[in-house]
Amino acid sequence: MDHKFRAGIVGCGNIFPMHAYPISKNDNVDLVAVCDIKQERADAKAKELSAKAYYDYQEMIEKENLDVIHICLPHYLHPIVAEYAFSKGLHVMTEKPMSIYLRDAKAMIEAAEKSGRTLGVIFQNRYNNSTQLIYKALRDGRLGKVKSVRMTLAWCRSDEYYSKSDWKGTWDKEGGGVIIDQAIHTLDLMRYMIGEEIEFVDCSISNRAHEIIEVEDAAEGVIKFQNGIFGAFHCINYFTYDAPVELEFDCEKGRAKLTADKSVIYYHNGDSEEAHPTGDYFHYGNVKSYWGVCHQVQINQFYDALKKGEQPEITCYDALKTQQMVCAMYESGKLHKRVYLK
Ligand SMILES: NC(=O)c1ccc[n+]([C@@H]2O[C@H](COP(=O)([O-])OP(=O)(O)OC[C@H]3O[C@@H](n4cnc5c(N)ncnc54)[C@H](O)[C@@H]3O)[C@@H](O)[C@H]2O)c1
């Protein structure tokens, strides 16, 4: 019989089901253990999934002979847990962002290389139909060259939402606000779809509407790609609901607009194409009701790649570029200057 990967998940909070369910549906993997410092959370999830509960991730790694650990923790813990897991010979699938600081994301990659293990980073929205329609039209030349791109994000993260968390809204544990936590997905899509290195970012950040958080709830600016394209962005998380994110490409042969799970391309020759959500991916309660249900696709692809001994489609090297972009946006916003990427 084929080897089944033994997987554990650390962090039994909001995003936990989006990892637990795909693992439980994947024939190549057994979810053997779950871990949370909040014991009642670990106990409840362990019972639900017939896994073992742990309250200390090092103990889980030591006792369970895991092949893979999924990291669903506050941002500042991603590099700490990943590096420990690599030192014990595990593969790692971490939630976005890789880390708060660029140097930590680089250290995660070095630890993966040193151990010969794989680092996966969740950017599940790359697998949405809406993303793929435009991505392919850009790659195969149907849209011609991109002239410019813009994105808008207006979501709702109220003071009440922040008051329930002991890490969100803080610089040391979340590492920022609307950029690093919410807009990172759409910013990653912009970078992935343009497929070019970045020359500079020029960004303003501010807290305009929240009383109880340290971090920014608004960000505006531009990403200049090395091929000359300007990518404009406007992101807030003080809107009253999670409006569909928008990403629009103005291209030589047409215009393509992604509106969350839907996208439409109008070609200048009169043709058009559309993409809609398939609707059959798992999302749990309202965890991901507004956007981003493709964890299952990315997690399955990650395990397929592990089985073949290959890098996953979304490599840690590519995820690092998004981390670098986000870190440069913070540097630009905090220091009020344009930041060139090396
Ligand atoms: N991909 C997406 O669409 C998406 C959506 C939401 C959250 N996320 C990401 O998932 C991660 C977790 O976010 P969340 O909203 O689930 O947070 P959360 O606060 O709901 O859950 C985090 C859990 O980690 C536990 N924890 C904290 N320190 C621990 C430790 N040392 N050992 C074990 N457990 C510990 C907490 O008790 C909590 O249960 C973040 O990186 C976030 O950005 C991704």
Instruction: Look at the helices and sheets and give the structural class.
Output: alpha/beta
State the end-to-end CA separation: 48 Å
Q: How do the strands line up in the largest sheet?
A: 14-13-12-11-7-10-9-8-15
Overall form: globular
* Tally of DSSP helical segments: 10
Total E-strand runs:
15
> Overall mean pLDDT score?
95
The portion of residues assigned to helices is: 25-40%
Question: Strand portion, in percent?
Answer: 15-25%
Instruction: Summarize the main sheet.
Output: 9 strands, mixed
Q: What Rg, in angstroms, do the CA atoms define? A: 20 Å
Q: What compounds are bound to the protein?
A: nicotinamide-adenine-dinucleotide
State the order of secondary-structure elements, H for helix, E for strand: EHEHEHEHEHEHEHHEEEEEEEHHE
Low-pLDDT ranges: none
